[in-house]
Amino acid sequence: MARPQVLWALGYAAGAAAMAFWLWSRAGSWGLLLGLMLGVIATHFGIHLVIYLVEMIWLGRPPIPDCRRGRCGGADYYVELQEGRKTYLCRCGVRYRRRGLRFLEIAADGREIPFRRWRQFRGWFPDFKF
Ligand SMILES: [Zn+2]
Question: What is the pLDDT of residue 96?
Fold first, then answer.
């Protein structure tokens, strides 16, 4: 299995090579040089645009909202597996679970209480109805 860095480098190289070849076939050797540079830049923006869209539409950004008390952010949560599902324990001792675009608080009796809901391109909003 290739390391991620290798895949990233290959992706950039492929983008640069494609652009270089395309410009080279039209503008000759200067096109080759320009194409290599433009290809790297275009690949960079293309990859980050895709990541941005995926986060804004399907994942949420940050992927986990601040906790109910507002004290814990994404890195403060401790991830556990409960019955095969990911559970997020914040430093205040409250458990949360993600379900689709919803972030639910888990009460002591196991009930799921609506807490936050990701709205595409807008952010995490209070979730009132279930
Ligand atoms: Zn907390």
Answer: 96
